[in-house]
């Protein structure tokens, strides 16, 4: 009698395992477990059918993942007569699926179907399919659970930032970073290309910007104020061909790159090459070697015609390289004390009838915005661009808390929430960190519990919240492994609050699903803090 009992127990256990809800991040809008007999088996004999060539990006992403981690690829076809028993159907039709906000995914025995109105939403369905795959490397037969998923994003803007000025990251890592965003259904990459600590983008008309501005003669050691300076020449930049390559790569993953050219502050990189554009034209300027903003050292761009001429040249080349409709122009932490000491600036304020230095910054940003708009683009700026007023179409990125974003919604500006308290991933994840970080604390649970729509907003104002963004400033992030450590798993939390409906967000459940996600990161050789594996 023992054998039948053991067999029944084994069968029940197997059914329970098969019926387990997949640990998906971000959590889909609706996920139903269906008849276990509808589970799919994916292997090298499976064929991917695409309804049109526009779905090749999604199919290629899946194939690249399968090749890298399981050692095989799938045949992709648009011809139904080539199909065999096992098929992944990728079906995009703006008419037939016009009512879908996102995508639907369903496993049906030997076939798996993802359908949507757009190729972009099919791509998001592929990211979910990848998370349905086993997390053991090298398996040639991949069991996919029987599910029916309906899914679409909570916010339209789902962004992540990377500062490459303070520390430079090569193209290979930038592409890997974009892959990380794509796999978490993020759709905007804010590329912080210039700052006090280095100018990182080739400008053909002004090669001196990279020849001089891309290099500093030393870097602070340790946490500010530091224990000295390493005295080592440091720098790097991206050629325009490299930029085009990265832009193409991101577009294939439905990630829009928003380039940032900082102004009028955070400009020591450009002023090292052009000290004549500062408020002290006869004083040599070096690319910054220490972190932070200090009025005594951080000179700013003079609002002169020569400055605007150079910036117009720069922005023209930048806008030619990046098809994004948005250009980030900084606008934060401008040390206006330098303008106050400048006779030219004092005279300009009188000439233009400006009220004060905030008015001068507004004049500066209006000049830049008018030029950008003339090229068919829209500016994004940190919330300081509100000082003195901006045009209604400018987009505000609120980092000094939520106040700027709230103020901007009342003025009917589109807003991206990125408050330092919740969205700065360069800050420590733990009160006692494993390595050197910025001296603040942004734990995983705070990221997860952040709501970009403030309780202070009424329903009309809330409509102007476009989404949110995490920021990764690189003062203490000098290599890809450290960048990954600071990014994961806070990127998981960010992706869920931006994609998953508020009513379905649950931190305890999220932490449970992270256990599977960490196994996937192990499979992908992604660095993350192992402390999250401990009970909490």
**So, the CATH homologous superfamily of the largest domain?**
Glycosidases
What proportion of the residues form beta strands (DSSP E)?
A: 15-25%
CATH fold group of the largest domain = TIM Barrel
Shape: elongated
CATH top level of the largest domain is Alpha Beta
- Largest sheet features: 8 strands, parallel, barrel
**Low-confidence residue ranges:** 6-18
Class by helix and strand content?
A: alpha/beta
Task: Give me the number of helical elements.
Answer: 18
Helix coverage percent of residues? Answer: 25-40%
What does the average pLDDT come to? 94
CATH architecture of the largest domain: Alpha-Beta Barrel
Question: Ends: how far apart?
Answer: 43 Å
Report the count of strand segments.
Answer: 23
Strand order of the largest sheet: 10-11-16-17-18-19-20-23
Roughly how many Å is the radius of gyration? 25 Å
Work out the count of structural domains.
2
């Amino acid at each position: 009698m023992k054998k039948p009992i053991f067999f029944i127990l084994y069968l029940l256990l197997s059914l329970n395992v098969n019926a387990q809800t997949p640990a998906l991040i971000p959590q889909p809008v609706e996920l139903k477990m269906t008849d276990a007999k509808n589970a799919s088996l994916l292997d090298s004999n499976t064929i991917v059918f695409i309804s049109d060539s526009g779905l090749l990006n999604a199919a290629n992403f899946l194939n690249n993942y399968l090749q890298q981690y399981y050692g095989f690829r799938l045949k992709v076809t648009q011809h139904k007569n080539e199909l065999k028993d096992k098929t992944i159907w990728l079906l995009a039709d703006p008419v037939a699926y016009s009512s879908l906000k996102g995508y639907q995914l369903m496993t049906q025995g030997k076939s798996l179907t993802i359908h949507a109105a757009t190729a972009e939403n099919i791509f998001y369905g592929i990211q979910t399919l990848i998370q349905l795959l086993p997390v053991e490397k090298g398996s040639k037969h991949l069991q996919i659970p029987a599910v029916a998923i309906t899914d679409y994003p909570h916010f339209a803007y789902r962004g992540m930032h990377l500062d490459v000025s303070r520390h430079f990251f090569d193209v290979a890592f930038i592409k890997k970073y974009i892959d990380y965003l794509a796999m978490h259904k993020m759709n905007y990459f804010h590329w912080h290309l210039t700052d006090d600590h280095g100018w990182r983008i080739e400008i053909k008309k002004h090669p001196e910007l990279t020849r001089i501005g891309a290099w500093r003669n030393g870097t602070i050691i340790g946490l500010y104020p530091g224990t000295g300076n390493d005295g080592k020449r440091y720098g790097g930049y991206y050629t325009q061909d490299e930029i085009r390559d990265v832009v193409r790569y991101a577009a294939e993953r439905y990630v829009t790159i928003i380039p940032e050219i900082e102004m009028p502050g955070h400009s020591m990189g450009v002023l090292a090459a052009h000290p004549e554009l500062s408020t002290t034209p006869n004083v040599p300027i070096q690319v910054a070697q220490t972190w932070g903003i200090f009025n005594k050292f951080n000179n700013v761009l003079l609002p002169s015609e020569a400055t605007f001429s150079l910036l117009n040249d720069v922005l023209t080349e930048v806008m030619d390289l990046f098809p994004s409709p948005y250009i980030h122009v900084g606008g934060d932490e401008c040390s206006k004390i330098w303008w106050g000491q400048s006779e030219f600036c004092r005279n300009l304020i009188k000439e233009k009838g400006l009220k004060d230095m905030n008015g001068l910054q507004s004049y500066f940003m209006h000049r830049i915005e008018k030029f950008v708009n003339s090229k068919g683009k829209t500016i994004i700026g940190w919330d300081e661009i509100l000082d003195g007023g901006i045009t209604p179409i400018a987009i505000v990125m609120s980092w000094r808390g939520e106040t700027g974003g709230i103020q901007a919604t009342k003025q009917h500006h589109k807003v991206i929430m990125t408050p330092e308290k919740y969205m700065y991933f360069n800050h420590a994840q733990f009160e006692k960190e494993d390595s050197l970080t910025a001296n603040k604390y942004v734990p995983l649970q705070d990221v997860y519990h952040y709501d970009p729509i403030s309780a202070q907003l009424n329903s009309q104002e809330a409509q102007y919240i476009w989404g949110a963004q995490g920021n990764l400033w690189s003062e203490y992030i000098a290599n890809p492994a450290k960048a990954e450590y600071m990014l994961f798993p806070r990127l998981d939390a960010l992706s869920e609050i931006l994609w998953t409906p508020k009513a379905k967000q649950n931190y305890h459940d999220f932490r449970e699903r992270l256990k599977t996600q960490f196994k996937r990161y192990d499979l992908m050789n992604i660095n993350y803090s192992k402390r999250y594996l401990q009970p909490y």
